[in-house]
User: Fold this.
Amino acid sequence: MRVAKRRRGAQRRSRGAGIALLALWLASCGGEDAGAGRSPGAPVSVETFEVALDVVRDSYEAVGTIRPRVSAKVASQVMATIESVAVEPGDAVAAGQLLAALDDRDLRAEYDRARADHDRFRRLLEKNAVTQAELDAVESRFRVAQAALSYAEIRAPFAGIVVQKLCDAGDMAVPGKSLFEIEGANAFRVETPVPERFGRFVSVGTPTEVSIDATGERCSGSIGEVVPSADAKTRSVLVKIDAACREPLQTGGFARAHLTVGERPALTVPPAALQRTGQLTFVYAIRDRRAAMRLVKLGPALGERVEVLSGLEPGDRVVVHAARELADGQLVEERAPDAAPPALEGSG
Assistant:
């Protein structure tokens, strides 16, 4: 029992010493000038900021991937040997430009036979030697052969960049097998999954911003598409953001989307009002024409302000600039504040 009493006594002495040290630190913040600062005849000129509740836009940073807005995998419509390839990866192509040519000998022979039959049946119909139905059947075969011959030339479906070449001269082109992959130039989207709890805040046309780590650019953009169903595994909604960036983008690159997901009230102060010593953060609030030290607990940075979670109330005036070093209880003289910083944005 004596040991327990001694421990309790040591704990009380430790707490008492801690309180005494804190009081000593508060008393010494102004140094030797503190006593002079409290003199009514020596006020310190200060600039103040009035604390008020601001509307903060909460944001959510979503990790996304850069995708082309327009892309296509080009395949052959007929089976034939590839005779020549006209482009390489990285080449810019115009809409309708030749990408590859197929061996068209068999296709051309079929076209020539179908055309000859078509011309012959037209002459026979004029002599009433065949029926209109017979001519229609021959004419249909001729049109099929004509279309097949046009497929011997593989052309770009739109203007863009060749990003993949999946064939070489001598390969066999088969319907459905990709030969080239083309992406539209200078038109990209950032695709990002957004938690379903934020789904009600994202809609087509909503402006947002996108950060590209590779270039260091923060681009403006807007939501171009929202997939209407959520992913059952990740419980997220796929959002596609149209980004307008000055620097060139690369498909598959890393991006961050900054989405507004609500608004809330918050107390904020300029960073210039904050002072730190060790792990303590405090401000000087004005009370009865004197500087009163207030310990504060901070939240996230909100643009050009910092959120204050505790330690201040709406209407408090805090010092953002002083003509000389302040101390707790210092007599001050306020001067007009500068213009307030712009709108705020937070993180959710």
User: Anything to note?
Assistant: The chain has three domains: 30-58+265-347, 59-68+191-258, 71-183. Residues 30-58+265-347 form a domain with the conserved putative lor/sdh protein from methanococcus maripaludis s2 fold fold (CATH 2.40.420.20).
